[in-house]
Every structure is written in C-alpha cells, then in structure tokens.
Design brief:
There is one protein chain. This protein is an alpha/beta fold. The chain has one domain. The protein is 37% helix and 22% strand. The radius of gyration is 11 Å and the shape is globular.
Length: 65
C-alpha cells in the first residue's frame, strides 16, 4: 500500500468532545495517520477550541488548520 496524503474537512470542532460524531472523526484520523499523511481542517469558534485541537492532534496529524 502506498502512502497517501489525506485531507479531513469537518464542519465542527473536534474538541472538546460533546458528540459521538466528534469521536468517530478523531478515531478515523488516528487510524488513517498510522499509514498515511493526514491534514485536518475544521471550524473553531473560540481560542480554547483551537488550542485544545492543536494540542490533541499534534502527534497524529501532519497539519491542523
């Protein structure tokens, strides 16, 4: 299997987790990042969501925007 570059676009912030859909997307990113390069783009409403998302995703994704 060749390494692919994948962009995940999600309309809501992934953190803080309040819905199961956020957890599903996070688990998908985590699983895909084992074998591929994953970038994530989401909408954040506050500085807290931005910092929390950057902190949680820094080890599993290539770029977070």
């Amino acid at each position: 299997m060749s390494i692919k570059k994948i962009l995940i676009v999600n309309p809501i912030s992934l953190f803080p987790k309040v819905m199961a859909s956020q957890d599903r997307v996070y688990n998908m990113i985590k699983r895909l990042s084992k074998y591929h390069i994953v970038d994530v783009a989401t909408h954040v409403k506050s500085n807290y969501q931005l910092l929390k998302s950057q902190n949680e995703l820094k080890n599993i994704c290539n770029k977070f925007q």
